[in-house]
Specification:
- By secondary structure, the chain is an all-beta fold.
- Strands 2, 4, 5, 6, 9, 10 and 11 form a seven-stranded mixed β-sheet that branches. The chain has a four-stranded antiparallel β-sheet with strand order 1-3-8-7, with no helix packed on it.
- A hairpin with a 6-residue loop joins strand 9 and strand 10.
Length: 115
């Protein structure tokens, strides 16, 4: 089975930058897409970005132009570079993967953006 571990979260000021990492281990397939979601208390998990096996990317409108998703297939790591952070970006960020849908999730990493 695939295991995902996120890291890189922390506290930053508005306008700052942060890079999240998600390391995959186990029976990971480089053909599977990977993605980032975020969630705040009392709200549903929100899509942030995804990247396919051929490095096609999709972003939520709320982060488009500010966030960049990338992956290192050799190291089984997916990154989320977050720039121009806003207080509304504050959330627990999760990475995910799967074959036809995301069915494997990490534990999440907290991102807090102060005003």
């Amino acid at each position: 089975q695939v295991q995902l571990v996120e890291s890189g979260g922390g506290l930053v000021q508005a306008g700052g930058s942060l890079r999240l990492s998600c390391t995959a281990s186990g029976s990971i397939s480089s053909r599977n897409p990977m993605g980032w979601y975020r969630q705040v208390p009392g709200k549903q998990r929100e899509f942030v970005a995804t990247i396919t096996s051929i490095n096609s990317t999709i972003y939520a409108d709320s982060v488009k132009g500010r966030f960049t998703i990338s992956r290192d297939k050799a190291k089984n790591i997916v990154y989320l570079q977050m720039n121009s952070l806003k207080p509304e970006d504050t959330a627990v960020y999760y990475c995910a993967t799967g074959r036809t849908f995301f069915d494997t999730w990490g534990q999440g990493t907290q991102v807090t953006v102060s005003s």
